[in-house]
From TrEMBL:
Keyword field: DNA-binding, Metal-binding, Zinc, Zinc-finger
SUPFAM superfamilies in the cross-refs: Glucocorticoid receptor-like (DNA-binding domain)
Protein's UniProt name: THAP-type domain-containing protein
GO molecular function: DNA binding; zinc ion binding
Entry-linked InterPro entries: THAP_Znf, THAP_Znf_sf
Record Pfam families: THAP
Domain of life: Eukaryota
Native organism taxonomy: Eukaryota, Metazoa, Ecdysozoa, Arthropoda, Hexapoda
Length: 108
């Protein structure tokens, strides 16, 4: 199956290392749309992994999945591993700490 990112247009045909994520079905969908400045998203629309940080994933079996409260970013992360390696996690921070994001209109 071929997937295409609704935001940047990246396709699974051009890059098989990308993963594609459906929009949430609850109120988080409106936050995603607002962050990406999109009017709407259909049932089959996806956002590619270039719009998420590595901290937004957890491993489930052999697959990487988005944490429940992950939110996309507008910038495409071309050097994803390089960007994430510059961030040091504090030893007192739990590995699966719940993330909270504060925006002008929303608190998740």
């Amino acid at each position: 199956m071929v997937f295409k990112c609704l935001y940047c247009g990246s396709s699974s045909i051009n890059n098989n290392k990308l993963s594609f994520h459906s929009f949430p079905k609850d109120q988080r969908k409106n936050l995603w749309l607002s962050i990406l400045n999109l009017a709407s998203a259909g049932q089959w629309d996806k956002i590619c992994s270039n719009h998420f940080k590595s901290q937004d994933y957890y491993v489930h079996g052999s697959k990487k999945k988005l944490v429940y409260d992950a939110v996309p970013i507008q910038d495409v992360l071309k050097n994803k591993d390089e960007n994430d390696s510059n961030q040091v996690q504090s030893p007192e921070t739990p590995l699966y700490q719940s993330k909270r994001y504060l925006t002008d209109k929303y608190v998740i």
